[in-house]
Write a structure and sequence with these properties.
This protein has 336 residues and is an alpha/beta fold. It is built from nine helices and 19 strands. InterPro entries: MBL, RibonucZ/Hydroxyglut_hydro, Xnuc_lig_assoc.
């Protein structure tokens, strides 16, 4: 008797459950055994009995939660396959942040890939997305509407640098998510030829060091401490919460920038008081989502979170069987 995909993986309140392997993928609460796709807090939580992930993701979790964040841990390199019960598990790059992975489960001739969060464009701080031929592809849909078409990264970095040149008396305070986005902006600035010292909020320092440990060169960074005059004409990168906090008052008439895919929505930029919105996302936009589904052409598409209605309709119009999983516990990361 042939096996159905939902017998291999199916949603439970804790997350995606694999009965044969007795593990969850990105569970939203502590479980006995977890496969974790990446280090963002809505996917990587502390308290599991055992965690399987890339070495980079395990290091990120240890940095964020402490060395005893799980009972036991196992690092699985990209492309290596292991057997857990009757299920075979492997990880492939997702292109989201450092160490991010798609989790592929193979059983009884069927292949299901849970992509976690992903993007398709080049990111100098992490391995690029690697398509995995699958019978079922589980995709996010954070930006799953046709209105979301992110501009080239270099264009947004050039807008930032033009503003720095135009307002040399002002600091440029860039709000960026502490894991992945901040380091990506720093690397993109370096690739654009910006060799000046970049100043960072203290909350970024440990993750910056971790990225450096894994070979991502960030150049000259200094803590954003000192007098107002020290920051005229400088770029300062900080978590979004700090940009909105009293901490930001230490800078001279700052140009408030914010790096997020949501900055294409003008109302969000106005609500945050953002003068320079930078449309830089670590998630796939509409074209990346639909192009990925076209490229993989799976028998079924499962959609985990985000704007699932539009993507499900697109899939069905293009001959792909699609369903929304309605998993709880995942956020449309407002800072992404």
């Amino acid at each position: 008797m042939s096996i159905r995909p939902d017998q291999i993986l199916h949603p439970r309140p804790e997350g995606l459950w694999c009965p044969e392997g007795r593990f969850f993928i990105d569970p939203s609460q502590p479980v006995d055994r977890a496969v974790v796709t990446h280090g963002h807090a809505d996917h990587a939580r502390a308290g599991h009995g055992a965690v399987l992930a890339t070495a980079e993701t395990l290091a990120i979790m240890a940095e964020r939660y402490g060395p005893d964040f799980a009972g036991t841990t196992q690092a699985l390199p990209y492309g290596e396959r292991i057997r857990i019960g009757q299920a075979e598990v492997s990880l492939a790059p997702a292109g989201h942040v450092l160490g991010s992975a798609q989790a592929t489960v193979r059983q009884d001739g069927l292949t299901i890939t849970a992509s976690g969060d992903y993007k398709r464009r080049r990111d100098p701080t992490c391995a690029p997305f690697e398509p995995v031929p699958s019978d079922v592809f589980i995709t996010e849909a954070t930006f799953g509407l046709p209105v979301f078409r992110h501009p080239p990264d270099g264009q947004e970095i050039e807008r930032l640098l033009r503003s720095v040149a135009q307002f040399p008396e002002r600091a440029h305070l860039v709000g960026a998510y502490a894991l992945g986005k901040a380091q990506r902006i720093i690397r993109l600035l370096r690739e654009a030829g910006y060799d000046e010292t970049i100043y960072v909020h203290g909350a970024l320092e440990r993750l910056n060091r971790l990225y450096e440990h894994f070979g991502v060169r960030l150049g000259r960074l200094e803590a954003a401490t000192g007098s107002k005059a020290d920051f005229a004409g400088r770029i300062v990168i900080a978590p979004p919460s700090a940009v909105a906090d009293r901490w930001s008052r230490r800078f001279p008439d700052p140009v408030v920038a914010f790096a997020s895919g949501w900055m294409s929505v003008r109302a969000r930029a106005r609500q945050r008081g953002v003068e320079l919105p930078l449309i830089l996302s670590d998630h796939a936009d509409w074209d990346e989502l639909t192009n990925t589904l076209t490229e993989l052409s799976p028998s079924e598409v499962w959609i985990t979170h985000g704007r699932d209605d539009a993507l499900r309709r697109w899939a069905e119009l293009n001959g792909l069987k699609a369903r929304a999983l309605h998993l709880v516990g995942y956020e449309d990361e407002d800072d992404d």
